[in-house]
Amino acid sequence: MKAALIEKSGGPEVLVYGDMPDPVAGPGEVVVDIHAASVNAADWKVRSGDYGPMAAYPYILGRDFSGIVSALGADVVDLKVGDAVFGVCDVGQEGAYAEKIAIKAAIVARKPESVSHVDAAALALIGLTALVAVEDTLRLKSGETILIQGGAGGVAGFAVQLAKHIGARVITTASAANHDYLSGLGADEIIDYNTQDFTAVVSDCDAVFDTVGDDVAVKSFAVLKPGGRAAFVASGGTAPEPPRDDVQSLRPQVGRDRPHLERIVELVAVGAVRVPEITLYPLSEAAAAHRVSEARHLRGKLVFEVR
Ligand SMILES: NC(=O)c1ccc[n+]([C@@H]2O[C@H](COP(=O)([O-])OP(=O)(O)OC[C@H]3O[C@@H](n4cnc5c(N)ncnc54)[C@H](OP(=O)(O)O)[C@@H]3O)[C@@H](O)[C@H]2O)c1
């Protein structure tokens, strides 16, 4: 099969398009013929060595995908060859930038016909992350106010829509060029972080969801009301230490399971969440897609059309 991969000789900075052996389904696994895979910020962080050395070379990046089941391992009873599925690789596993992947059947979900492979791949990890952060961790409620940092990104764009669906008032931050996009996703108030300091114009929030990191994360505590909750997914594996003792600082534990993927499907089906803006690339252009992702100003998602 073809894959976008990192070779030892090229070093971690170099993503090449090459041949790899086809994967085989182990017990409890399926092989999925991938039709689409998406780019996530984690991918260039792994590639650039931020998460430590590669487990082994050649190394195939990629965390979410959509495709067709082409082989079943032992003990797989709830999926069959030909099923359209989408999913996110298990924690510690990657390899979606490829024509095939072997993955635990229990952590993929059926893709409805009404959602394309490209859209399902775009939604999988961002949807899972936003659901775990906003519903499971922040436990956002109707009538509450939330500040979502980095609204034009994939995770935050899903979170804006989810928070509106829950019935919250949604404030978000983005460059001016992305304000119409965020109005379209339902944001109530959009702050141009290039011209306004959000801490000067936002206060008394019940919750913050930060997808930007660094000083944006740390400054976010200032907008919370006493008793407020903040969740962080761009500040590493632990939540930042709050500079005040009357708020909660939370690091969502984004696991992998089928029910969260089915919840994404349900939210799309009822019209609560629409697919983010998508820019398509062939898998052979993975290096170019990474240059866009790591510049950190893309709107929505980058998706590889694999076949
Ligand atoms: N399991 C997990 O914990 C998990 C899962 C998924 C993602 N993540 C993390 O979540 C973060 C977000 O990922 P993503 O893929 O959704 O988006 P992303 O590609 O990292 O973010 C791109 C967006 O960030 C916005 N942005 C950049 N600087 C900003 C600032 N100072 N203030 C407000 N917005 C700013 C840009 O909008 P403008 O052009 O308008 O600036 C752009 O739309 C990443 O750090 C990623 O690693 C964690």
Description:
This protein is α/β, with parallel strands linked by helices. Helices cover 26% and strands 28% of the residues. The protein has eight helices and 16 strands. Strands 3, 5, 6, 7, 8, 15 and 16 form a seven-stranded mixed beta sheet that branches. Strands 11-10-9-12-13-14 form a six-stranded parallel beta sheet, with helices on both faces. Helix 2 (117-137) crosses helix 3 and helix 2 packs across helix 7 (258-269). The longest helix is centred in the middle third of the chain and has 21 residues, at 117-137. The model has no long low-confidence stretch (mean pLDDT 97). The site of NADP nicotinamide-adenine-dinucleotide phosphate (NAP) has 30 residues, from helix 1, helix 2, helix 3 and strand 10.
Rounded to the nearest angstrom, the distance between the terminal CA atoms is 11 Å
Shape: globular
What amount of the residues lies in strands?
A: 25-35%
The largest sheet is: 7 strands, mixed
Q: Helices and strands: which structural class?
A: alpha/beta
Secondary-structure topology with pairs:
Blueprint: E1 2-6, E2 15-19, E3 29-38, H1 41-47, E4 59-60, E5 64-72, E6 84-88, E7 100-104, E8 108-110, H2 117-137, E9 145-149, H3 154-166, E10 169-174, H4 179-184, E11 189-192, H5 198-201, E12 205-210, H6 214-220, E13 224-232, E14 248-250, H7 258-269, E15 278-282, H8 286-294, E16 301-305
Parallel strand pairs: 9-10, 9-12, 10-11, 12-13, 13-14, 15-16
Antiparallel strand pairs: 1-2, 1-4, 3-5, 3-7, 3-16, 5-6, 6-8
Helix pairs in contact: 2-3, 2-7
The structure holds NADP nicotinamide-adenine-dinucleotide phosphate.
The site of NADP nicotinamide-adenine-dinucleotide phosphate has 30 residues, from helix 1, helix 2, helix 3 and strand 10.
